[in-house]
Amino acid sequence: MSLDRVFLSLFCFFALSLARSTKIGSEAGVRLNGNGASFFPFRTGSSFRHPAASPAKRMASLLSTKSNKARVGTAMAPPVNNAVVVGAGPAGLATAISLADRGWDVTILEQRKSANAREVTKSYVYSVDARGQAFLNRYNLTSALVEKGVSGNNFTLTVVGTDGSLAPRKPPVLDPNRPPSYWIAREPFLQILRDAIEERPNAKIIYNTRLADLEVLPSDEGNEGNPSMIVTGIEMKSEPEIKEYLADLVVGADGINSGVRSACRKLSGDDEGFTPQLLPSPSSGLRYKILRIPSRFPLDKTGNARASPEMAYAISSPVKARKKKGRLGLLPVGMNDEFRTANVIQPKDHEIWNMKEGPEVKSWLEKTFPQLPVGEIFTEKEIETFAKQRGGEFPSPQFVPRLQCSDSKANVVLVGDAIHAFPPDIGQGVNAALEDVVAFEDALDKITAQESREPSVHTSEMISKTLSTYQEERAPDVKGVAYIAQNGFPYQYSQSVWGKRLWFVNFILRTFILSKLFPSVFDPNVFILVQNNKLRYSEIWTRAQRTTARMKVLGSILAVALGTFWLRAFLFAGAV
């Protein structure tokens, strides 16, 4: 079996889904106003002014409105906490569900114009494994995942050869007793979470709104017992509308270029704690674009063979030149999904990124994949969209040391890509995000139980303790998953042939030789270990480092032994 085919088999077995948020923009900045700490992500040339009233007066005005009176509490009704979640991706929606079920009033701010707005650079497929399912199980959402997704134990990868031949392959199952992962497109998965939000009257999503400001009421303003923060959002209409929200807690689930994280950095003064720590990776910097095609597209020009939505496909190309070659990867989608996505992933200097017009892209597709009926699979509109879109870029594996901010009366927690981001090499983006939420809600429940309070009533001190507990429990895993992503399976794309071969030798040595001969001494590659949801990310990385150190010792011993043997042979030959 060729090296490429081995890698292809590994690719189809492991959960490889694009789990990366797109960039917000390089123009983001921070301003401070005179009424207290205030964060404002803005774009060059735009303007924004708060109402003239001070934060304290605006807080009093907001508390006096009918919708906010319940948050103060009366003799007839106890007070409730309220949270503002920035970002309606998996991490944001999951956190909102968790808080709503604990009695909080939750407002989710989302930049997308609507729930159905297409995200061109995020139309990818998730692989939700047992880590992610741990959250879904708590809220009886796993059945919806099973219904809409495709079991990782059942799907088949079909390689479409350059001559149009079809070679289906069944990926191996490492542990049949382990819960299967489920492939599911991003949009159906988000819909599962949005449906859960709609069932909770104390949670709502406000679309077409971006974060404009996060203000903390100064401690001398006499707001004891009231929410300590005002979050300002701008609803992006023809005439932008400013809206303000009270917050006992702000959740930053707004992606790799998190504006909320920037606010934490400014509020706390801890630049190092909230600055992402970048790790080099061979897959960092690769660019990608996504083509949307029918889920049952024709596999050859005769029209006799059609794709099955529940199968994965790898479409090969006869073109071998590094800057011209291509490969299309299609992951499984649900049987009822009308469309699926084909990923184009190439280095920055590939010729595809210089094509800005639809006809150029169509010509490239026809030359690169001559076995496909390109005109029947890709519509002119889709090709034109592909040509015009900027696409995305794989980030460096990264993490931030601090996951929360409880400084200056601000209670802010970060989840998802805001605290860890990496290329899709290990398929853990969505799973790590959902695990963040589980860790946060466990911390919240722990502090609530210790304080013997009703779940819906949390003082600022309790929230601060919750954030500290979350920091202590989750930070090692946030760091661990970034290092796992750096070392897991970075050579699965169009990269260095020698780098791929060296990685593969290391993979075979760890997984199929040393860990089999000496299982108590050596562990398999992290790519294998991460499939075991019983192991924490931090534990996996610790075990990987231990195996590396022992391999170095073993290598040194073998080198000395071989050197000694060679020296003795040389001396013996000289004596003779």
What does this entry show, briefly?
This protein is an alpha+beta fold and 576 residues long.
Give an overview of the whole structure:
The protein has 16 helices and 23 strands. It has helices spanning 3-13, 55-64, 69-72, 90-100, 130-138, 142-148, 186-198, 259-268, 358-368, 374-377, 380-388, 429-451, 460-487, 497-517, 526-529, 537-575; strands at residues 38-39, 82-86, 105-109, 125-128, 150-151, 157-160, 166-169, 182-185, 203-206, 209-216, 229-235, 241-247, 249-252, 277-278, 287-294, 312-315, 328-330, 339-346, 392-393, 398-399, 404-405, 412-414, 420-421. Helix 5 (130-138) crosses helix 12 (429-451). Strand 11 and strand 12 (241-247) form a beta hairpin. A 6-stranded mixed sheet has the order 9-3-2-13-22-21, sandwiched between helices. Strands 1-10-11-12 form a 4-stranded antiparallel sheet. A 4-stranded mixed sheet has the order 7-6-16-17, covered by helices on one side. The longest helix is centred in the last third of the chain and has 39 residues, at 537-575. It is globular. The protein has 576 residues and is an alpha+beta fold.
